[in-house]
Amino acid sequence: MAVTKSSKAGTKKSASKKAARSKSAKTKNGNKSASNGSEKMNRGNSPIEKFFTDMLKDMYYTEEKLIEALGKMESAATTEELKEAFNDHAHQSKKHQRRLEKVFELIGKKAEAKKCDAIEGIINEAEKIIEETPEGSMTRDAALIIAAQKAEHYEIASYGSLVQLAITMGLNNVADLLDDILTEEERTDQLLTDIAETSINMQAENEEAAYSWMD
Q1: Residue 148 belongs to what domain range?
Q2: DSSP letter string, the chain
Q3: Which letter, b or e, does each residue of 40-58 get, where b requires 16 or more Cβ atoms within 10 Å of its Cβ?
Q4: What are the phi and psi torsion angles at 186 (to 5°)?
Q5: Given pLDDT bands bounded at 50, 70 and 90, which one contains residue 3?
Q6: What rounded mean pLDDT belongs to the chain?
Q7: Residue 22 has what pLDDT?
Q8: Residue 98: inside a domain, yes or no?
Q9: The domain that contains 61 carries what CATH number?
Q10: Contact 135, 143 (CB under 8 A)
Q11: pLDDT for 64-105, tens place per residue?
């Protein structure tokens, strides 16, 4: 998504990672090049191609489910800052869906979703948080940030792996598109960390009168 704020350190870190991935692509691909500008995969449907395609379907499903889940999380959040972050993340997921559709097109596959148990579990956990935390509390916001970052970390791990697989298979344009998604996911994760650390976690802590382990 188009993140409205992020730390300079986070931005530099993302830029550095992207440069490293670009260098890796050049090193691994050597003289590989795509014919006629299209990077369609070998029609033999090799095992690594099938695995790569299945992962793309997982992420297409993930982005679709997150659009719906983030709407619920936005409605349930307490602070306007977090509501805005969830709203932006939902718009980001829509943009990522379009990029994934372009990726499917480049490899000559139909864009389709495959149920992803991992994101289903993360979303179910977020829904339980909404049920079990007090409405209007900072504790709810702190817990929702954790749930959102679990989704981000899953996406970061998945897109990072897809980038490297695309590089390995010589799909340079595909790798670039997936790398753009990965960079945005990393920035969103950093934004959520900033929101939690600068305000919400401390306010949530102040909602508690005393901890059970304190005398």
Answers
A1: 53-205
A2: ---S---HHHHHHHHHHHHHHHHHHHHHHTT---GGG--PPPTT--HHHHHHHHHHHHHHHHHHHHHHHHHHHHHH-SSHHHHHHHHHHHHHHHHHHHHHHHHHHHTT--------HHHHHHHHHHHHHHHHS-TT-HHHHHHHHHHHHHHHHHHHHHHHHHHHHHHHTT-HHHHHHHHHHHHHHHHHHHHHHHHIIIIIHHHHHHT-S--TT--
A3: ebeeeeeeebeebbebbbb
A4: -65, -40
A5: very low
A6: 84
A7: 52
A8: yes
A9: 1.20.1260.10
A10: no
A11: 999 999 999 999 999 999 999 999 999 999 999 999 999 999
Predicted TM-score (pTM) of this structure: 0.80
Is residue 194 assigned to a domain? Answer: yes
100: region left, alpha or beta (phi > 0 left; psi from -120 to 50 alpha): alpha
Lookup: tokens for 185: 């996911």
Q: How many domains does the chain have?
A: 1
CA 98 to chain centroid, in Å, comes to 14
The pLDDT tens digits of the residues spanning 157-168 come to 999 999 999 999
Give residue for tokens 């990393």. 186
- Is residue 80, in this structure, part of any structural domain at all? yes
pLDDT tier, 205 (very low <50, low <70, confident <90, very high otherwise): confident
Q: Report residue 54 as tokens.
A: 């299945």
First to last CA, the chain: 46
Does residue 90 lie within any of the structural domains? Answer: yes
Answer whether residue 62 shows pLDDT above 80: yes
